[in-house]
Fold this sequence. Notes:
- By secondary structure, this protein is α+β, with helices and mostly antiparallel strands.
- The protein folds into two domains: 2-92, Helix Hairpins (Orthogonal Bundle); 98-241, Heat Shock Protein 90.
- 55% of the residues lie in helices and 18% in strands.
- The chain contains six helices and seven strands.
- It has helices at 2-56, 60-92, 102-114, 135-151, 197-202, 209-219; strands at 98-101, 121-125, 130-133, 158-165, 168-175, 223-229, 233-241.
- The strands form two sheets. A five-stranded mixed sheet has the order 2-4-5-7-6. A two-stranded antiparallel ribbon has the order 1-3.
- Helix 1 (2-56) packs antiparallel against helix 2 (60-92), helix 3 (102-114) runs parallel beside helix 4 and helix 4 (135-151) packs antiparallel against helix 6 (209-219).
- The longest helix is centred in the first third of the chain and has 55 residues, at 2-56.
- It starts with a helix and ends with a strand.
- Adenosine-5'-diphosphate (ADP) binds at residues 144, 148-149, 152, 175, 177-180, 188, 193-196, 200, 205-211, 234.
Amino acid sequence: MTICVLQELANTFNQLLQQLEEQFEREKSFVSNASHELRTPLTSFRGHLNLIKRWGKNDPAVLETSIQALDDESNRMKHILEQMLTIARNEHLETTPEKVNLSEIVEGVIAQFEARSRVPISANLEQNVLVSGDREQLRQVAVIIVENAERYTKEGKVTVLLKEAENTVMLSISDTGIGIPREEIPKIFSRFYRVDKNRSRETGGTGLGLSIAKEIVENHQGKIEVESEEAVGSTFTVVLPVISG
Length: 245
Ligand code: ADP
């Protein structure tokens, strides 16, 4: 009997150690990725600062270009830091789920993007679709996916659908953009992963958005599915459990 208990204790202890080790490895790689991502804009920032110091005082063209570059790079760093803060905040956030109207949330996000989107956004939203969760986090999910759809679409349109079907709520966001190569699809939800680093960086991407969205959706007992074809477009579908009433 005692041996059994001891054996069980040893097993639990081993599992705990393994989990801690895995978490430590994840955090180590997160810190090293984050440092790398921040170092790139910081290096460019310092380069332009040096240009201004050396030539900028006498050359208005250098001054103008470098000030614009400093502005862009500092915005980039701000965006990366904000997303890292979101990750840290979500990890420690204990939320009490409430009944939220997903239709209103998605409507708000579309209105926010419509004003500045390069491509038209068309929406077909069932009214009063209710889910249980955190309003702000669910809004973040919609923002991340709509922002990506717009970011990776040059021509065509973005279509947002929201409906209830068989005890689930489906929010699907389709675009007619660049699409994602089949072999890359499983990787796009990893932190800092981008299919095309340069293009994503140019358009303001950090490689963190989808990892944040996936974490939030899974915390809401849901899942995200992707269908995509290169040069045709992508559809991201968020499936959440429905609540009635
Ligand atoms: P990023 O900030 O770089 O957009 P995400 O985590 O949101 O980071 O997305 C990861 C990668 O997945 C992007 O860099 C991009 O290559 C790809 N991706 C995401 N959404 C789309 C989309 N709608 N169309 C094409 N590629 C996409």
